[in-house]
Write a structure and sequence with these properties.
InterPro entries: Aldolase_TIM, OMPdecase_AS, OMPdecase_type-2, OMPdeCOase_dom, RibuloseP-bd_barrel. Pathway: Pyrimidine metabolism; UMP biosynthesis via de novo pathway; UMP from orotate: step 2/2. By secondary structure, this protein is α/β, with parallel strands linked by helices. The protein is about 45% helix and about 15% strand. It has helices spanning about 1-10, 30, 35-55, 65-70, 75-90, 105-110, 110-115, 130-145, 160-165, 175-190, 215-220, 260-265, 280-310, and strands at about 15-20, 60-65, 95-100, 125, 150-155, 205-210, 230, 255-260. α3 (about 35-55) runs parallel beside α5 and α3 packs across α13 (about 280-310). Mean pLDDT is about 95; it is low at about 190-195.
């Protein structure tokens, strides 16, 4: 997590922009001449680049959701990789939201997201439902290629409680907390490696939803060596005030995600795009995304400062 923490420190901003394009999140002018999946994929790429250009100096990372690209077939998958490469070229940490989970040779093949350069990812998300057999291949690849993984622990969606809040011990420990303990174990080997010893965090992070602030604070106490990826801020209902418990006492240890709130910020004035050219629309998309990213940064950092004052 050293690269990620350095990027956060350089920007003074613990937030990540989710690059999850859909037709609804693109101005209609960008899709007007998209007669094929290949055309639509190119429109997604232009949209992504406009946002990356607008925010690269104020955010440390981007998080493309691969499903949005796979929906367009091979052309979309190619644009996913191109988007990641472009983001890395602008100095951004790229967190591939792929949520893979399988065992044996299949898990090892999925872990090629970390070992094969064509994906241009610094980290990926992983589903732990199959246990250590599904995680170890990713940990091994992350160790060998100096990458990171983020394991789902307590997700932001409302129905996560159907599984993740189930008690799994007489003491009332939830399944999410049990998974948190496993994540600490899985990261244990890397926490003493040269790549992470300077950060205090292992290369095995956790996904913990902003919509569950109490669970986030409990998991932070249980997982002192685990960096959190925190989705659910903004559009899903997570607030900056509820985020303080996800960070450690130094105000570090968490990366807050916003997708629609930033890449869809242009929709606050959709009528302004009616008569624009493609290039002008892309410029306005970037401007709106930058303003939203700055507002998010100020919202989060203000909340962290208030927490520091209260602690003092």
């Amino acid at each position: 997590m050293r690269k990620l923490r350095e990027a956060i420190r350089a920007t003074g901003n613990p937030s990540v922009v989710g690059l999850d394009p859909t037709d609804a999140l693109l101005p209609a002018v960008l899709l007007r001449d998209a007669g094929s999946l290949e055309d639509k994929a190119e429109a997604y790429y232009a949209f992504n680049c406009a946002i990356i250009d607008a925010v690269a100096d104020i955010v440390p990372a981007v998080k493309p959701q691969i499903a949005m690209y796979e929906a367009l077939g091979p052309a979309g998958v190619a644009v996913y990789a191109r988007t990641n490469a472009y983001a890395q070229a602008q100095g951004l940490y790229v967190l591939g939201d792929i949520k893979r989970g399988d065992i044996g040779s299949t898990a090892a093949a999925y872990a090629a997201h970390l070992s094969v350069d064509v994906w241009h990812e610094d980290a990926v998300t992983v589903n732990p439902y199959l246990g250590s057999d599904g995680i170890t291949p990713f940990v091994d690849a992350a160790e060998e290629y100096d990458k990171d993984i983020f394991v789902l622990a307590k997700t932001s969606n409302p129905s996560s409680s159907e599984l993740q809040d189930l008690p799994v011990s007489d003491g009332g420990m939830t399944l999410a907390e049990h998974v948190g303990g496993l994540i600490e174990q899985w990261g244990g080997a890397s926490s003493s490696s040269s790549s992470s010893s300077s950060t205090g965090y292992s290369r095995v992070g956790a996904v913990v939803g902003a919509t569950h602030p109490e669970a986030g604070a409990q998991l932070r106490a249980l997982m002192p060596h685990t960096f959190f990826l925190v989705p659910g801020y903004g559009a899903q209902g997570g607030t900056a005030a509820g985020l303080a418990g996800f960070f450690d006492s130094a105000g570090s240890g968490a990366l807050i995600n916003s997708s629609r709130g930033i890449i869809g910020a242009w929709r606050a004035r959709p009528e302004a795009f009616d008569s624009l050219s493609t290039s002008a629309a892309l410029e306005m998309v970037g401007t709106a995304a930058r303003e939203a990213a700055v507002a998010m940064r100020e919202d989060i950092t203000t909340a962290l400062r208030e927490r520091t004052k209260e602690s003092a």
